[in-house]
Amino acid sequence: MNSLSLQKLSVSRTDREQSSGKMTSAKDDLYPRKILDYMEGFMVSKTLFAACELGVFEQLHASAQPLSSADLAQALGLSSDATERLLSACVGLELLNTQTNPAGEVVYSNTEMSTVFLIESSPRSLYHSIQYSSRTIYLCWHYLTDAIREGNNQYEKAFGINSKDLFQALYRSDDEMVKFMHLMNSIWNICGHDVITAFDLSPFRCICDLGGCSGALAKQCLSLYPQSSLIIFDLPKVIQTSRQHFVSEPHERISFCEGDFFKDALPPADLYILARILHDWTDQRSIELLTKVHQSCTSGGGVLLIESLLYEDNSGPLTGQLYSLNMLVQTEGRERKGSDYSRLLTTAGFTCVQIHRTDKLYDVILARK
Predict the structure, then answer these.
(1) 216-224 and 174-196 are packed helices; what angle lies between their axes, rounded to 10 degrees?
(2) Virtual CA dihedral for 156, 264, 276, 143, nearest 10 degrees?
(3) What element of type H or E holds 97?
(4) Who contacts 179 (Cβ-Cβ below 8 Å, separation ≥6)?
(5) Residues 67, 55: contact at Cβ < 8 Å?
(6) Contact, 363 vs 349, CB < 8 A?
(7) What are 331-355's pLDDT values in tens digits?
(8) CA distances (Å), 13 to each of 3, 5, 22, 23, 316, in order?
(9) What is the separation of C-alpha 316 from the centre of its chain, rounded to a whole number of angstroms?
(10) Which of 120, 114, 81, 85 is nearest to 97 (CA)?
């Protein structure tokens, strides 16, 4: 074969390789990896939910050694085959570790992340948040399509409860109210420090946490600002439950005030904290509440809003966008941009609006009277 033929063969091979590479790239571009991930996202959630509800992580934590799927199934009263599949999926999700014991059995143990966040007794546990997501939020999301068509929450379809009174629907039973309070408690145990330290709150000596729920944020606040006193304001049954389950020990700097913040007088304070409150309500209702806060606030005082802020160009963050859909299926409110909250605050009479993004779940806005 002469040199010209070799050159032609080399060019031909290069062309084929380049063509093959382009075809591979084109095929990769046509493979809908993200869409498939999104389609199967609910499977990930339900795997986590099921493992928590069945007690997988708790049982492994209580065990002195890793367990086989058969041992775990027997301890929890589950199908052995189904348990093995669940455990395998949890390994794939990096929620469990796996190893082979001397007998040749595959055995399972919790990862560090699962031990910290999925064990109910852990100080940073998300166990109750997961329970609430599985048994309440997930059921409302089943009707997301209807919510978008109708523009309202889906409590009636999901639970047969009229949602004209939002918190009568949210707290439709004592058990459901306790679950919701546990949800809020776990969120603030993880996120409370970041939001409370976003601004220097030391000048505010009397702080009122409106809708203070379990008191978790109040405790975070007092640990950081020991010179302040704090009032937890919430519905009477929430206050009673908080005293029974969450703030059972007397605290000289925490007091309670029962009431409906739309109907009843607010206690005077230097600073009002509204943590994940305004996103439950329409703009009109939010202005109504903020105006009431402004009237009750001492001169020179302020209001601290803690919410998940959307970007001004609507491009994200994704968590906030999804939370806004959750507000649609569960409440009458929405997540908002920083400019939206600034408008609500100034309409209510507040000035000097400052916005602080934490780059985590919740952001913080401070405004002054």
Answers:
(1) 20
(2) 10
(3) strand 96-100
(4) 128, 131, 132, 135, 136
(5) no
(6) no
(7) 999 999 999 999 999 999 999 999 9
(8) 15, 12, 14, 15, 46
(9) 16
(10) 114
pLDDT recorded at residue 306: 98
Task: Answer for the pair 345, 290: CB distance below 8 angstroms, yes or no.
Answer: yes
Instruction: Report which residue type is found at 177.
Output: M
CA angle in degrees (0–180, nearest 5) for 303-306-309: 120
Interhelix angle 80-92/41-54, rounded to 10 degrees, is 120
Residue 342 neighbours by CB distance under 10 Å: 17
Return the sign of the alpha-carbon dihedral for residues 259, 261, 264, 267. positive
Helices (H), the chain: 3-30, 33-39, 41-54, 56-62, 69-76, 80-92, 112-117, 127-132, 138-141, 144-150, 155-159, 166-170, 174-196, 216-224, 236-245, 283-296, 318-330, 338-347
**Distance separating alpha carbons of residues 257 and 53, to the nearest angstrom:** 35
* Vertex 206 angle, CA 203 and 253, to 5°: 115
Q: Cα–Cα–Cα angle for 315, 316, 321, nearest 5°?
A: 120
Q: What are phi and psi of 71, to 5 degrees?
A: -65, -40
Q: What is the pLDDT of residues 163-209, one digit of tens each?
A: 777 777 778 888 888 889 999 999 999 999 999 999 999 999 999 99
Q: What is the pLDDT of residues 11-59, one digit of tens each?
A: 344 444 444 455 455 566 789 999 999 999 999 999 999 999 999 999 9
Name the residue type at position 301.
Answer: G
Q: What are phi and psi of 51, to 5 degrees?
A: -60, -40
Tell me the average pLDDT across 259-285: 97
Residue with tokens 């199967």: 40
Q: Are 221 and 244 in contact (CB under 8 A)?
A: no
Q: Which residues are catalytic?
A: 279
Phi-psi region of 259 (alpha: psi -120 to 50; beta: other; left: phi over 0): left
